[in-house]
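Re: folding output
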Amino acid sequence: MKHMNSEVKEERTSNKKRIDLFLVPIVLIAAFLSLFKIWTDEYANAYYTAAVKSMLQSFHNFFYASFDPGGYVTIDKPPVVFWIQTISAKIFGFHGWSVILPQALAGIGSVLLLYVLIKRTFGVWAGRFAALAMALTPIVPAVSRTNNIDSMLVFTLLLATWMLFRAVRTVKFGWVLAAFAMIGVAFNMKMLQAYMVLPAFYVFYVVATKITWKKKIAFLTTATALMLAVSVSWAVVVDSTSADKRPYMGSSQTNSVLELAFGYNGINRLTGNTSVTGSSHKQPAQTEQQTASSETKQNSNSSADSSQSSNQRKSSFSQKMQAPGGGNQNGMFNTGNPGPFRLFQKGLSDQISWLLPFVIFSIVGLFAGVKFKGPYTAKQKESLFWLAWLLPVAVFFSIAGFFHQYYLIMLAPPIAAFAGAGAVALWSMYKQHNDWKSWLLPGGILTTAALQVYIMSPYVSSIGVAPIAGVGALGVILALVLAIRKQRKNSLTNYLGAAAMVVLLAMPAYWAMTPIIYGGNSMLPSAGPDSSSGMGEPPSKATNSKQSGFNGMQPPGSSSGNSSSNNQMQPPSGSSNGGQMPGGSSNNGQMQPPSGSSNSGQMQMPGGSSNNSQMPNSFSSKSSSSKRKSGGMNAEVNQKLLNYLTKNNTGEKYLFATTDSTSAAPYIIKTGKPVMAMGGFSGSDPILTVSKLKAMIKKGEVKYFYLSGMGKGGQSDVITWIKENSKEIPSSKWQSTSSSAQQGPSGNGTLYEITLK
């Protein structure tokens, strides 16, 4: 008790001290990287922004996180982050930046929390370096600059970590409950992803808390029960509500939150399977061709160039696409091939792995001399916590079948923690020891510089040879000089150590700035010179840095006159079924749209959007516009179509219905009116039946249907009935022919009208 009181007193005294002046510029760097120019992102991730627009209109929509104002279907995630975004939009007005702001602040908050967590045990310099490493980890600001969930998720988990550490120091059960309850809150942000930190929480509490085993088991059991109760609280309420009194649970196949949590947002992420109308399709790995279109500047005024680049892409793809384990394969959404070295592959390494070798050397140093039976120092206990966070998450991303690059932000806290704590520990060993431990610092610097050269090498055409050669040369020189000057205690050696840390953080800092320099992608955020594409491939020198999102796409009803029918995906080498996209089917060795689709060569973007016969690239914005509409979806409506639908609406609830959220989102954002995404996010949700649609039409709820051939897995009967019982509206009445129209997915569609008596 005396020891506990002294720790509490020490903490209170520490809190009264003045602000750490070295922390101020670190926080300013984090703020700049997270906040600068977010006001230029008008729509952010349009799928989620549309939900905020809808949630602002009623408590019913707010509670269920309805995608559309009509309360037809929800988004594919729990509501907590979107409740926060909606509150922000209510306070500051509905803007792209107002829905991004909470995540940006969470990114800054994570930097501060990590500083506090590391400083107390490992020292102030360890806290400073950990905070700086967190701020400069490229994927951290890339995600924080969007309205995706992960930045807020990491902040919440770090807050839970702070509560857990306090529970161990004070030996108070209340803080244990608070820590695990906070994980339950995080579950209601992104479901099972929040539980990835549980091994660290259990291991640390068992090892670090000085109470009897009986109390440990009782406390952890009770805290876990509370965590589970908080986790499923919203799900139980929703699943217990009659289906006709709430929106359909988006991206589930049984209209259930729990099925969504443990299926689409759970086990399927590990297995790589996505369930579409009861069928599971193994997601194929894709290659560098995935974003090969980002290597050619899209220009609607240069059809000849566009045609030539299309042929080049097709030829390149057919040569590069290989079966799993093949040479140039980069995996689904450029997440590499499963295996022990996946985090060092292109597409992932430049997002998170810049300091991994240094972290490995730090782990060796921090656990040097540790005996299995203990006793353990405070540093070793907390190092064990961060290791128990790092390893399971790293293993998951090494073997998982389906995730996006920005999920890697989950690795940022333990990597930054070990970078900060390890820098101080290895420096101390370098100065005080003359055995193998003194070689850990030079070894960590040398191997980390080598990895960074490897990470940058694919981008030589974008960033030039100089920075790559500079990092390599300086890393080798500083490591060698430090090795030669071992144990020389003078100021020059101190400066050399500091210079080495600067060199190791230089290129991560540049990578972290790329979403600002080149533009970001709010749907699939990533960092790098190709950050606007969101796909992790180096662009050519011809790439327009002002582009962001997806090129070569059109909004509903616009026509650019360019055909992309040649850009059909080819199957992996040796594949008999063509390698299906999620929810898709294969035919003649080409990637096909989901069943029931009339247009071929189209693909769905899980977690993002669907595009028309092209791989994702950048979303062209008008050169005269100061706003960046980079939702990765239809970031601009067709005004002629909107005018026609508004003029001819005779009291129907829905402005129009369409197959999926891609076509619906921008119209919801623009008008705030209900637009029905019949098949939910990707068009594959089994929400509608023909009889249900007939009843809606007879009640006067909807009469216009925009069908683009996208996302109709599980909706084929409904689509067929619509076509057979409708009147096609002449395109001249609603279709824009302006070649300068903002481009987006789902162009070349057809507008139908159905009126039943």
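--- second protein (sequence, then structure) ---
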Amino acid sequence: MIYKTITKGSARFTVMTEQLIRIEYSPTGEFEDGQTQIVQDRNFEQVHFDVIEKENGIEILTSNLHLYYLGGVFTNSSLYADVKFNFSVYSNRWYYGKSYDGNLLGTTRTLDKVDGACELDEGIMSQNGFTILTDNSLVLTDSQDILGKSMDSIDIYLFAYGREYREALKDYYHLTGATPLLPRFALGNWWSRFYDYSETSYLDLMNKFKKKNVPLSVSVIDMDWHRVSDVPSRFGSGWTGYSWNKSLFPNPKRFLSELHDKGLKITLNDHPADGIRAFEDVYATLAKRLSLNEELEESAQFDFDNPEFRRGYFEDVHGPLEADGVDFWWLDWQQGSVSSSGADPLWLINHYQYRDAQKIMPNNIILSRYAGPGSHRYPLGFSGDTVISWESLDFQPYFTTTATNIGYTWWSHDIGGHMQGYKDNELSLRWLQYGVFSPINRLHSSKSEFTSKEPWHFDTDTEECMESFLRLRHRLIPYLYSANVLTHDEGLALIEPLYYRYPLDSEAYEYRNQYFFGSELMVAPITSKSIKELELGKVKVWFPKGKWYDFFTGQKYDGGVEISIFREKTQMPVFAKAGAIIPLDKNPMENNEFPRELMWCIFPGDNGEYVLHEEGCRTKIALKNKQLSLTLDFDDNISEAIKEKVMNRSHQVIYAGHTISDIYIGDFDLDLQDLNDKFDWKFENELFRRLDIAEINYEEKDYLYQKLSSIPEFDKRVAFLKNISSKELQDSIFELVYSGK
């Protein structure tokens, strides 16, 4: 039988895919077919399934599940389903209304004031293989405004994808809308600080970043851009404001123009909750539009349910600021949970502001908090004001990775933490390292004079490492932008939990802070303080089967093991599998949409292929049997100027850490047969380094170095390690022995 919708009394069932069924209940017999705040598109391809009619109910059978409805009001005895996979001996049946362990969770609204972990809402992935998405959101009109409540009293979606997590996410995006493509600038380094800068001090700061060869792409001006302390007391707080503080920024247009000249995009912080009050520069214009009583200084209450207020807000309030050079808005909403329409005001802000942002530039963004399922349609996410602590850092990788389970893949954190906490140079460095390998790298801090995140605010070693990692972020932009395209086009997230690729391996669920970063890299950030005796940070890593290399040094690991990884403060555990191909921009300070020179990092040991996505073109590179080929592919409508840029760019190949001196232009083929497959990493060199920095007895250092250097066999080295009394030192050296076998 080929049809999709079955109605039985007050219940309606829509088979969307063989793994996804919509289940509705409406006492009136009227059902909802309109778009909602969560659901955008229910039109999937036709699917084959069978229906068994019963006197009061029905049964629906697909290749993945068997749903039973016995009639009447939904209960756990009248509505249930058997899923056709069995990940445990007792939990392969879903019952309506029953809660289940095994949900892999999603995300939450904000990390404001969180010091460490917090509770997360559920996502659409479960180790049980089935879960429910509840749509109790409001219905939208054809023009995407709030219409009202749904006619359904129950509207749920049964996801029964087993452990095909990528397939579930792809269909979730079909149902709720695709993640928009991000502009390239969003993927670089952001500078943000809650601080009352002046035009002069801010521009001087930007000049210092440039002098230090530290690239930036986004300039965030926090709330002190507008009047705060001099707002007349009769108007209340200065938290909301839309009039430039002329004592700090005497010529805003000039200031914004100079930032643009430095290649920066600009966002202003907006706390809109208090509306537009009579002290604002734009008040008279908005008062006329909204017929406010100017004599009584009647304020324009923030009300995004009101179309006329929205028009005034975008045209009269934001419009002049955008004309002066503001590129997008940071919507810092924390007040109130329900508007007059019944909608979450945060959802309304995100929805309408994102739509309005597109008038400035294609694929423009906002920065705002998460407002529930479907929020991925309004990137980017601002996760809020976290406490500066190791506990907060330790939670963020898991928090970010798990958000993919509800499709929310573009979180932007306050990298380094926002407030309170304590000074710890290593914590700041580890947080920045994580930021470079997170979706958005936005350095941020509070107004404290002591929490600022400029690299030169720290000791020399930390500063140099921070600056190196910030340059690396911009080198990675070609790789990041390609992942961005795949998220938009194919529903593949930049950040994936390990279990997306290894769903049947128990270890993939245990290593919560370890994740895939794009198609080629696996990251295991260090989120705890270094072991003082060793001067090394430590993280336990699971290597899936195969051959893996340290992205920075080429240190090799055979997969199928769980092993403790040790790194100095200036190093971060990032791994590439054999055959990985990673494009890097050779000139990270240039911020070019089409980089002039690309470096291709090739990891030996297996075949591999990679497609670099850019606007209107694709660069395809493949490694097969040590033959490397690069071909260019262009859209038909691409401009000749862009085509020429891409065809004339230079390519440098780095194979197993060795740079091939020749530079290649356009398409090329390269024979790598004669090249050494081994990186320069050497066991003895790394052993000496680790012993040298360790705070242990010199005689013990000499003894360990001489003995281990003289034993070539892996098994004998491992046996010798048992003589070391310090378990941490033993584990650190075992990592080297394992890599050097």
